[in-house]
Each structure stands twice: as C-alpha cells, then as structure tokens.
C-alpha cells in the first residue's frame, strides 16, 4: 500500500513539474524563452519526424555495437584479472588510461585515425569497458569466503569456487556496472558523431542544429538522446532489481581478507614497469597499425618532441599551462561538490526510501541526458559563465557516485542492521555505526570513478560554452589543424587523471588497511 | 537401517579397535603451524598429536584462539601446515577431500543465498563432479532426516538460523562421508535448540557410522556426543588431555541431568581452565 501511495506521489510530482514547465515555457519566463514549453518541443519533434529515424538508428546501432563489444571484453578481462591477479597489475596502466581517457579529447583523434562507424563504436566501447570491468572485479573479489571454504573443503579448486560461488555472486555488481555503462555508450557514440562530421547520428544532427540556435529543436534532440540513454539504463535497473534479493548473504562475513599472494621484489618491479610502459606501447601500436601519416598521428615521442624540442615548443607549453590553470581548480571544486552531494543523498536515501524515489527520476533525467546535448541547453539557461561549468561538473560526477554508494549501503545484511535497532538505535545511529562504515570501500571507489568524469565535464563545458581552459584549447587546435596540440591535450588530460587516481588510491589503501577492510578494485 | 552396510551395525568399540590397527580415521602427528603477520609471529599449533580411530566421535575443546579450528582446517586442506603429517582416511587431506571421503559443516551455514535448500545440499556433489540428479533420493532423505520436509525449494533467506544450520548438516552428509568434520556447527544456536540438535546429530551419526571430529566451545555438547574429548590450551595451541567418555549409546537427553555426566563435565572444565 505504501509503495502504491509513493508511486502515485511520484506520478503527481512529475505531472506538477511538467505543468509548471509548460506555464514557464509558454510565458517565456526563463532566459528570454530559452526554456520552451514541452508542448512546443513535442510539436517541433513531430515536424522533424522524417529526420529522426535515421539519426536515431545510426546512434543506437553505433552505441549498441560498442556497448556489446566493450562489455564482452570487460567481463572476460575482469574474470582473467581475478583468476590471475598478476595480469591485473600488469594491465593496471592500460585500464586506468582507458578509464581516464576523456572521450572529448579522444573523439578528434579517433576521427583522424579511423573511418566510418569505427570511431563511434570505439568510443562507446571505451566508455563502457572500465565501468563494467571494475564492477566485475569488485563482484568477483567480494565473494563470501565461507561459501568458498565449503567448496574447497570438497577438494574444489579456484575454478570450482569461481563457477559455483563467485560468478553468480558477482551478477548484481556486473548489472549495476552495465546500468552505469549504458548511458556512457550513448554519450560516447554521440561525442564521436559530434566531432566526426558524418551525415547520420544524433550528434551530427545536434551539430547541424547548433548554428540555428533553435531552442525547440535542441531540446527535442536532447530529449530523444535522453530517452535512448534512460531506456538502456532502465532495462538493467529492472533486471538488477529482480536479481539482488536472492544474492544478499543472510549474515555478514567477518573473515579477515587474505593477504595478496607474495611476489619477489624483482617480480613486483617487473610488473610495475610493465604497467607503466604498456599504455605507451598500446598507443604506439595503435598509431603504427592504423597507418596514419606522422603529421597527423603523433607517437609518445612525437608529443615529447612537440612539447619540449620543436621550434614552437615554448609557445605550446605556455598555452598548455595557462589552460591547466583554468581547468584544474574548477574540476576539483566540482568533484568535491558532486561527491558530497552523492554521499548526502545516498545516506538520506537509506534512512527514508521515499527520498530515493523522489530524487531518482530527476537525477536520472539530468544524468542520462548526454552531456553534449545537455550543455547547449544549460548555456541557453544559465549563460556562458563559471556557473555552467560548475553545474555540468557536479552533475557528471554525482550520478555514478550515487549509484555506487546506494549499492554499497544496500549490501549491508539485514542481521547487521538489526543489531543496533535492537538497542533502540535511531535510523541515524544505525547509519553512522553500520551503513557508513560498510559503504566506506564504495565511497573510495566512487571517488576514483569521479576523477576523470570531473575533468571530462569541465572540458565539455569549456569546449561548448565558456571558451576557456583545456576544452577550448582542444577545440582551437582542431580549428588550426594543430595536431601536435590535440595529441598533447589528450595525453596530458589522461596523465592528470591517472596521477589524481593514484593519489586517491594511496589514501584509500592506508585507510582501509587500518580498518581491516578489503579494497574495491 | 536395513539398507546400511553391516559394518555400521557392529558395536562401536569393536570398530574402533579394528580401525586403529589399520590407521584410518583422522590422524595428525607432530603438526605445527605459525602465522606470520606484519612483524609478528603467532604460534597457532605446536607439535599437535590427534588420533581419531575410524568410526569414533572425537570432540576437540579449548578456549578461543587455541588452534582447534586451525587443526580442523588443516585436516581439510583449507590451510597449510609447517611441520608434521596429516592423514584422513589414510590419505593426505587433498586426496581425501577430492575423492569425496569427507563431509564438513562450519559454524556459519555458509549457504549460497541464490540456491534452494535442495540445491544447496547438492553443492558438494557438483564440486566432486557427480551428477546431482542421480542423488535426488538421498537429498530428499536427508531433508527428511534433518526435519525440513516442505522446505525443499525455500531459499536460505526464508529460513531461520536453526533451519539453515540443519541444511548445512544435511549438506555435510550428502556424500555419505567416511570422515565428518564439524566446526562448531551449533555455535549460533540457543541452548534448547542446541540440545535437540545434539540428539539429532547423534542419531544421524549412528546411522552413518562415520568418523567424526567436532570442534566446540561447549563442554555439555562435547560430553554428550563424543567417545573422547580432546582438551587444548592456547599459546601455543597444543593438546593437554584426552578424556574418555564411557556412556552407552544411544545416549538420551536424560544424560544431561545425570550426576555422572556433571562429574565428567566438571572434570573437563578443570582441565580446560588449567586448575
């Protein structure tokens, strides 16, 4: 009954919001008509109905194929990493580089080196790989060691434990990974279309419509892109809801996690060197095998040459440093705000589930809305100032952190929650004593997840709206055909993400070690 | 009872004597184990000798951290040991577990939350690569044996703690083990439930005739179930006494209130506390 009542409440909220939106739009109250009425947007959608099917088809097929390829690779990779932890260490550099690639910096490069559907499929696949891979590793690592003991006590080996206990136990984590990954794939495909200049695809359509600045059409494209991303999210959310109930362990495992397998210092050093070098080897191989001329495709040495040796290197360095000084502070503040907001909301959501039902639709709406489509709309609404960058950065970091935290908190078994409740603990005490500590590994994982997204959000805002910082430098360089700078910005933004990622990782390691908790990879 | 092999029906003392001569059952000889952490060393077991003749019921009792669970885990091959030899049914732990000679129930039922009662009981069969469908009857029989008729398709989340523990007991018996390891299987249950489970366990064990090693905190439980109680002390973990329990089988709940029972329990408590 309560559930039905809250569902009715949710529908009522949505109706109220849409009605308000309609009135505001009709009267042109916001930013001189930049927020059009829903009815007007729908009418424009109907007028453009002949254009949409092929654009939508192009985006959906590109992102769908990328989603499929990226996730198959990601799940297999996660499985291999867990079965052979040395491979995880060896490929850590590649994984983090893929994770930290800001799609916006990579889109121009992919469009320079690949052709046809390949750039959007690649960008969609890159967008989903890390999320699904790490979700798979988390799920497979955090299995119930007691069930593992039962299997081993009958002579079962690692593979048997994997097959009977860990694979099924990881399903909710993988599904929540897919849930976050799905909108990423759509965003990746649209970004590639946006920078690619192909004929079909929502990104191309958006690019073509930007010049005319018609709010009705921009909102229409944004809504269609959001619906595609939202539907892909919803599918996995529903599946995950069905599965989670039978996967939660009834009691909490108190076993202390086993220490990582001992490795000789030389072995460790070799793995560390391999981990650092492999991303550069991969970069080199990519440039070599695509067979793009040196002028356009820069190898790692080419970038060093451009930045430190060539004639223009001093100017290039100066431009880069000025851009970084604009981008980094905004990214940092936005990230802290986004994380804090996510944490606050996750805590509230646990204490009163009504909050989660009220906030989730709004969060989903703004988050599944692909950033490229969202940014022009935000510019229409709040102008081209500092505010638009902050809004985008907060919103882009908030969503993945929130989902991860809610999941971490919801995995606390019932019996553990019952204990403080039995002592008459209030919901807040229960939260403080049980849920927050249990969610701590997830908070750290969320922080690491947020770093590159904050950078991405700032760069997209800078490219499309404010005309400052790294994003603007990238856009300008595209205009000037300054290939060296395009590759430089891409590699610097990746290196920065990796550096911050490792800083968070060190804090995390120290904290969790002190608390005797297992790290979420 | 008619379906059981005749060796299960022989008097226990006979069986024990015969098995001891063959050296089957469980035998740990001079076993030592040291945990090395960051800068600290904990000597969990020092020169541990433990002999459980075939068909006997041995209870291993001692304070927390005396290494009794470690001894059990070593016997199952779940942990390595630094010195000494371990034989389970005449084989190494790895051989014995892999050939399905052992059964085990831990303090926590450790059921897979997504599997029904029936499928949880079938888990050891799958690990041993046997066909669970060929054992449908045994599974149904064990569910009856532990009194869970009607819960065949329930999920662990739908059962009470006692019921989950009985599923774990049924699971430990599905391979018809020669050697049964029980690591505080009733540790999480209340005294009344625990006593009735003790009576049930004795009945089940008498029917199977396996060699049983029970790790426990409870003196009552040890005296009621075991042929011999092995008392351990901590720092380092070692055996300090082996005390025979002379009561006739099958033992009934009346035993819990008999003066002989309490005399023996008091004696064990004294040894346990080292007074």
Task: Write up what this structure looks like.
The complex is a heterodimer of chains A (521) and B (275). Chain A has 521 residues and is an all-alpha fold. Chain A has 2 domains: 250 residues, Orthogonal Bundle (MetI-like fold); 224 residues, Orthogonal Bundle (MetI-like fold). Chain A is built from 21 helices and no strands. The longest helix of chain A has 40 residues. Chain A starts with a helix and ends in a 6-residue tail after the last helix. About 1% of the residues of chain A have low confidence. Chain B is of the alpha/beta class. Chain B is built from 10 helices and 9 strands. The N terminus of chain B is likely disordered. Chains A and B meet through helix 8 and helix 9 of A and helix 3 and helix 5 of B.
Keywords:
heterodimer, A: mainly alpha, MetI-like fold, 21 helices, globular, B: 275 residues, alpha/beta, Rossmann fold, six-stranded mixed sheet, 36% helix, MetI-like (chain A), MetI-like_sf (chain A), cell membrane (chain A), ABC-type nitrate/sulfonate/bicarbonate transport system permease component (chain A), transmembrane helix (chain A)
